[in-house]
Design a protein that fits this description.
With about 650 residues, this protein is of the alpha/beta class. The protein is built from 19 helices and 30 strands. Helix 3 packs across helix 5. The longest helix is centred in the N-terminal third of the chain and has 17 residues. It is globular. The termini are far apart. Adenosine-5'-monophosphate-propyl ester binds next to helix 10, strand 20, strand 24 and strand 25.
């Protein structure tokens, strides 16, 4: 694949084809996107491409289609019926290979099970499953009958699961007896049982037998999937869905304690992902594509399930940990299946980098043609290691910037159009149809090389429809800072060649090993402990995870700090959020720095946590005086 690396000193040249397509897409977005949408198969063509009533967009108004039809039925009508859809590998080493016709059959049967359980179009179905084929099958089965799925990451605790289930009012929960993680079964059914004690909307629980561990089944509520599948019909009609029908709800963190249910529709979402995926990954009939993300995140929804399967791609799905039983497990999988496109996260790359090149050299990775990165900023060192040692300097690295809300990839090299000369650590340019900009607090475009806020100035088909059950939050979080313009919450720089560099979050959201967690969520979990009066959470840089969590907590009168209390707080966080939110450090302090209006001054906490100076105090965005802030900083430093 033609690509080059642009290092300082080499000359930048405009790459013509990309700019031609990009400029056309911006000049005539409706013409452009209707051409893209025609690449899918619609049951009914739209009457209007876009109804834009800021900040609400309605794409392909009046059009009807079905996501499950596009991912399976369309292929079984062709030679692809015998093509591999999913190469699945379980952590213990067991494997399953599903052709498109097997996938089609399983999706139909699963949809029939849903109907037999009384699930109808418009119902919400919660999926709490390990990385096994039943997860994409369940998603496609829901889509087939118009039930909106909500996948909850299997690393979440019972409380986090219950919170999400309650927010959606799901009637059915699908789980498994367990999934494997680092050699041990993670007992999901048991966690689900605990969650359902707190989630009254759920009437039925469907259980996949994965690990063969004993579980208790509640009569009248719980059913085994394999038993239900025996009674299922082999065909369920893929119901035509309106373009704006909610395909799924996916929870993500924001700046308040309560996670947001991001709602994605059907027509716009699928059109956007179908195109973005092709542009970025240059998917070919013979490609073997592996994205290591969990299906529980948006990357899994768009870049494991919907986009690849719409393209009839052969995908690899792996259940377990990257370093189990050995540090070369991933390289072994690449070799075993002849993976051509590999898509992973900077945290994983940094973690694997620490083990040097020896585990890689044991494997033949020559099948690889393209590498991708997603979820957090990739430092040039990790990018270069990935390029050199995994891609052997022959595979372009696509650094893809996007968000749960954007639905699909927004800023990234697009090798299928024309690969820009790459710069290690830069996501390069916006994809066609994406009007990105870097602006100051007033919304004015920043000059090159200066840090600003990343915004998107025109609607795009993959944009989310809203925040489930909270229309106010949709407007306030994303569209009120710059009316009519989408605020991403990220800092970015555009360099003198026009390349985008994403620098991380500008708000109170953390990215821990690529997982998005709100500081307020962790603070809420900590103050739930009877000994804690107040808490403030910040992050410190971490060489592998990108960021790590540091907690400052004030204890209630009569409570004293102790290692046991720290352990209790850590356990509490694991219980209410999950292991991803485990803190690196906990400091017990006598007070927290606050503005006069009561907002925690995180900059001070951060400076104390990182042992840095508090920097330029003249830019302080609160009402406290410089002297006051300095004093608080010095006092706090003495305490930790
Ligand atoms: O801060 C950006 C970071 O991840 C955030 C979105 O997180 P989430 O909704 O969980 O989706 C992640 C997977 C699409 C963004 O606001 N982020 C994502 N991709 C990149 C990135 N930061 C830098 N470079 C990226 N390629």
């Amino acid at each position: 694949m033609v690509h080059s690396i642009l290092t300082s000193g080499s000359t930048y040249w405009p790459f013509k084809k990309y700019f031609e397509i990009y400029n056309r897409s911006i000049k005539d977005p409706e013409g452009f996107w209707s051409e893209e949408a025609r690449k899918l198969e619609w049951f009914k063509t739209w009457d209007k491409v876009l109804d834009w009533n800021p900040p609400y967009a309605n794409w392909f108004v009046g059009g009807e289609l079905n996501a499950s039809y596009l991912c399976v039925d369309r292929h079984v009508k062709t030679w692809r019926r015998s093509k591999v859809a999913i190469y699945w590998e379980g952590e213990p080493g067991d494997t399953r290979v599903l052709s498109y016709s097997t996938l089609y059959r399983e999706v139909n049967k699963f949809a029939s099970v849903l109907l037999n359980l009384g699930i109808k179009k418009g119902d919400r179905v919660a999926l709490y499953l390990p990385m096994i084929p039943e997860l994409p099958i369940a998603m496609l089965a829901c889509a087939r009958i118009g039930a909106t799925h909500t996948v909850i990451f299997s690393g979440f605790s019972a409380q986090a699961l219950a919170d999400r289930v309650n927010d959606t009012g799901a009637r059915l929960l699908v789980t498994a007896d367990a999934g494997f993680r680092r050699g041990k079964p993670l007992a999901l059914k048991r966690i689900a049982d605990e969650a359902l004690e707190m989630a009254p909307s759920v009437e039925k629980m469907l259980v996949v037998r994965r690990a063969n561990i004993p579980v208790s089944m509640k009569p009248g509520r719980d059913a085994w999937l394999h038993e239900m599948m025996e009674k299922a019909s082999l065909f369920v009609n893929p119901d035509p869905m309106d373009s704006s029908h909610p395909l799924y709800i996916l929870y993500t963190s924001g700046t308040t304690g309560k996670p947001k249910g991001i709602v994605h529709g059907t027509g716009g979402y699928l059109t956007f992902n179908h195109s973005a995926y092709r542009w970025v990954f240059d998917i070919k009939e013979e490609s073997i594509y592996w994205c290591t993300a969990d299906v529980g995140w948006v990357t899994g929804h768009s870049s494991i399930v919907y986009a690849p399967l719409m393209h009839g791609a052969a995908i690899v799905l792996y259940e377990g940990a990257p370093d189990y039983p050995g540090i070369d497990r991933w390289w072994d999988i690449i070799e075993e299946y002849g993976v051509t496109i590999f898509y992973t996260s900077p945290t994983a790359i940094r973690m694997l980098m620490r083990f040097g090149e020896e585990p890689i050299e044991k494997h033949d990775l020559s099948s690889l043609e393209l590498l991708g990165s997603v979820g957090e900023p990739i430092n040039p060192e990790a990018w270069t290691w990935y390029y050199k040692h995994i891609g052997k300097e022959k595979c372009p690295v696509v650094d893809t910037w996007w968000q749960t809300e954007t639905g699909g990839i927004m800023i990234s090299p697009a090798p299928a159009i024309e690969c820009p000369p790459l710069k290690p650590g830069s996501a390069t340019f916006p994809l066609p149809g994406i009007l990105a900009d870097v602006v100051d607090e007033k919304g004015e475009t920043m000059p090159p090389e200066e840090r600003g806020l990343l915004v998107i100035k025109a609607p795009w088909p993959g944009m989310f429809l809203g925040v489930y059950g909270d229309p106010k939050r949709y407007v306030e979080s994303y569209w009120s800072k710059f009316p009519g313009i989408y605020y991403t919450g990220d800092y970015a720089i555009r360099d003198k060649d026009g390349y985008y560099w994403i620098l991380g979050r500008a708000d109170e959201v953390l990215k821990i090993a690529g997982h998005r967690i709100g500081t307020a969520e962790i603070e809420d979990a900590v103050v739930a402990h009877p000994a804690v009066a107040e808490a403030g959470v910040v992050s410190i840089p971490d060489p592998v995870k990108g960021e790590a969590i540091v907690i400052f907590a004030i204890l209630k009168e009569g409570c004293s700090p102790s290692p046991d209390l720290k352990a209790e707080l850590k356990a509490l966080i694991r219980k209410s959020i999950g292991p991803v939110a485990s803190p690196e450090e906990i400091h017990f302090v006598s007070k927290l720095p606050k503005t006069r209006s009561g907002k925690i001054m995180r900059r001070i906490l951060k400076a104390v946590a990182t042992s840095a100076s508090i920097g330029d105090l003249t830019t302080l965005e609160d009402e406290s005086s410089v002297e006051e802030v300095k004093k608080i900083y010095e006092e706090l430093k003495k305490e930790v």
